[in-house]
């Protein structure tokens, strides 16, 4: 599975550079180890594989 994050500055303008640090937790019926990719343009991608059906919650925290 894949989730996308678009970062913005305090005025809501899209950031055009990366370098932010994200802590991502995914909870649900199976153990999930997410991978966060920094595209270096203000966007980030969270990749993960769930092995069991069910409801999962994602918490992404900018550190």
UniProtKB/TrEMBL annotation:
<feature type="repeat" description="Filamin">
    <location>
        <begin position="1"/>
        <end position="63"/>
    </location>
</feature>
<dbReference type="InterPro" id="IPR014756">
    <property type="entry name" value="Ig_E-set"/>
</dbReference>
<dbReference type="InterPro" id="IPR013783">
    <property type="entry name" value="Ig-like_fold"/>
</dbReference>
<protein>
    <submittedName>
        <fullName>Uncharacterized protein</fullName>
    </submittedName>
</protein>
<dbReference type="InterPro" id="IPR017868">
    <property type="entry name" value="Filamin/ABP280_repeat-like"/>
</dbReference>
